[in-house]
Write the structure tokens for this entry.
Amino acid sequence: MSELKRHMGLFHLTMYGVGLILGAGIYVLIGEAAGFAGNSMWISFLLGAVVAIFAGLSYAELSALFPKAAAEYTFVKNAFKNHFFGFIIGWLTAITSIIVAATVALGFGGYLTQFIDLPITIGAVLLIGVLSVVNFIGIKESAWANTIFAIITAGGLVLIIFLGFMIEPVESVDYFEAPNGITGIILAFVLIFFAFIGFEDMANVAEEVRRPKKTIPRAIILSIVITGVIYILVSLSIIRILNWEELAASSAPLADAAHSVLGINGSVTLSLIALFATASTVLITLVAGARILYGMAKSNSLPQFLGRIHPKTKTPWIAVVGILVTSIGFTFVGDIVVIANIVVFAVVITFAAINLAVIVLRYTEPTLERPFKVPINVGKFPILPLFGFVTTVYMMLQFEIEVVLVGVAIIGIGSVLYIILKKRNNFSNSS
């Protein structure tokens, strides 16, 4: 089995992370967040950033320890010495990448209809197809494409920040106004956490990163901090343009905010930027999903043909095709808000496992060299991963039963797949 080629340095990996995080979430869900939290939604974004940093620090330590593709699978399997647990976490990561790619592609298709009379599903399928070609060509090309997308996406958010703080609001803004109290802030926090997820996929391109033990931890923390600051500034500025009731009623809140200040040109500009934002999210999730399949195949946890590297492009081409086909299949599933909650539920399970893995490895593998170590420790015990574990468990308890049942069903399907593959002797005891 051939090796992947290391193209990415700190800048590209950080922009890759920013592109992973900045995407459809902020463009679609900020209106829903305003409906829950009112003017206080900036607190929800702050809470989201804190939880993301907890998980990001844990990812940073583990990715420096085990700079491998299929990162979550590798981390959990090595921490708990349990192949099934590792497989399920890897499965959750792969399936959520597929669902996110498909759902956000539908968001792209929706924005595209404003410019081209094309069915939403067709637009989504075309996007997945084109970006899968980029994914196949190579990580270097994918990284450059994502860097451009990320800069454009961030530009749209910076425009909102600029407009919000440059104009004089019609009435004074109470930044602590919360129509639904603490409950609304928490509900908004759980929902908009979708806008923070993605940085975890940075670890899945570890085998294509130069000096991964130093580069990955730095890039993870930088990307979370950059996007967290942008999100909080956007949430503070946009309510100076539109009140929270108007934001909650809007299907395109950022475009409507730009339209309020700049007219039709502002709306068109933000809609175009939203196309880049959704395209960026889809590209990155396709890249990460393929690397998860590749890494699990390389570890003999999935059929080995998924780990084949194309001789010319040096990319896991069969995994790319697999992600392409399954993502297109999921484009026939709709509502981004509902899917966002399903994805967040699956992700917080993964984050809980990752935070716990850091704690366990501190005691089971104390002699391992840790190029990056989560700060604030009592002896061997890391405090911040404990906070991260507790907060993710708390988040799990906030979801509606329907979301939980879908999450359990995904885990159940993964369990059946594990049993089938085990019977076919696709697993090895290697770590």
Q: What stands out?
A: The chain has a mean pLDDT of 85.
